[in-house]
Specification:
With 258 residues, this protein is α/β, with parallel strands linked by helices. It has a single domain, classed as Rossmann fold (3-Layer(aba) Sandwich). 31% of the residues lie in helices and 29% in strands. It contains nine helices and twelve strands. Strand 1 and strand 2 form a beta hairpin. Helix 3 crosses helix 4, helix 3 packs parallel to helix 5 and helix 4 crosses helix 5. The longest helix has 13 residues. The two termini are 30 Å apart. 38% of the residues are buried.
């Protein structure tokens, strides 16, 4: 489904990704981990065709994404089959009601039974009671669920989710990860929350502060590699100090900020 080869990209003269290579098979659930600034959002935008890499190549379903700009049919296919959930949901909301947000994609691509699709995905994402409200008046967590619903209304083959739990409370986060596991689509979910990694997929891609791919493999094996996680700035060594000032022991502390 995805093939990335020697991918590098600079953003305003600053390196964002460096010589990254990996491939993804259909149906995989993958956690994309890395500290803030490691390049997770940039990578997802490149996979969605919103940004062209400076060097290297990216292909979806066997076709090079670099040809999107000059091929309207190929660009339309990518937009239909690949959905990107932005970290900031306000960047995805343009209509006066939630109902119109969910209906826009199916109508744009000529889908039949648009109203039925809207009702179905609103129910699946628990936003049915919000359909006639303005999306701009919702909480961030509600907006995030609306945005996911509008992507799923197109029934994409590939979902790219940029920090989807950042606005959710613990109960909603638990519900979301269970929901994502049940989808047939291939899902790549970015996070800097190490404790969520094993819930988001069995495979993990880890980006380092140097913007390289530090790890590609089993998520549970990565969880036990404290040296690598420290190098990626997802954990750090914490000295436990008593009131007397004496350091009694050291332990690893995770950066689970969500």
């Amino acid at each position: 489904m995805i093939k990335v080869e020697e991918l590098s990209h600079d953003h305003e003269g600053i390196q964002a990704l460096r010589e990254i290579s990996f491939s993804v098979e259909p149906g995989q659930k993958i956690a994309l981990l890395g500290c803030n600034g490691s390049g997770k959002s940039t990578l997802l935008k490149i996979l969605n065709g919103l940004i062209e890499p400076d060097r290297g190549s990216v292909s979806l379903w066997g076709r090079d994404l670099s040809g999107m700009s000059g091929d309207a049919a190929w660009r339309r296919e990518v937009r239909r089959r690949c959905g990107l959930l932005f970290q900031n949901p306000d960047a995805m909301l343009f209509h006066s009601t939630v109902r119109d947000e969910l209906a826009f994609g199916p109508r744009h691509f000529g889908r039949k039974e648009v109203d039925a699709s809207v009702e179905f995905w609103a129910g699946e994402l628990r936003v049915g009671k919000l359909l006639d409200r303005s999306p701009h008046a919702l909480s961030n967590g509600e907006k995030q669920r609306v945005c996911l619903a509008l992507l799923l209304a197109l029934e994409p083959d590939l979902l790219l989710l940029d920090e989807p739990t950042s606005s959710l409370d613990p109960r909603s986060t638990g519900w979301l990860v269970d929901f994502l596991r049940g989808l047939d689509a291939t899902v790549i979910t970015s996070s800097h929350n190490l404790s969520l990694a094993s819930e988001l997929g069995t495979r993990c891609l880890l980006l380092g502060e140097d913007h390289t791919l530090l790890y590609d493999g089993d998520v549970l094996a990565l969880r036990d590699d404290m040296e690598l996680l420290t190098r990626a700035n997802l954990v750090h060594i914490h000295d436990h100090v008593h009131r007397s000032g004496e350091v009694t022991h050291r332990h690893y502390h995770t950066h689970d900020w969500d």
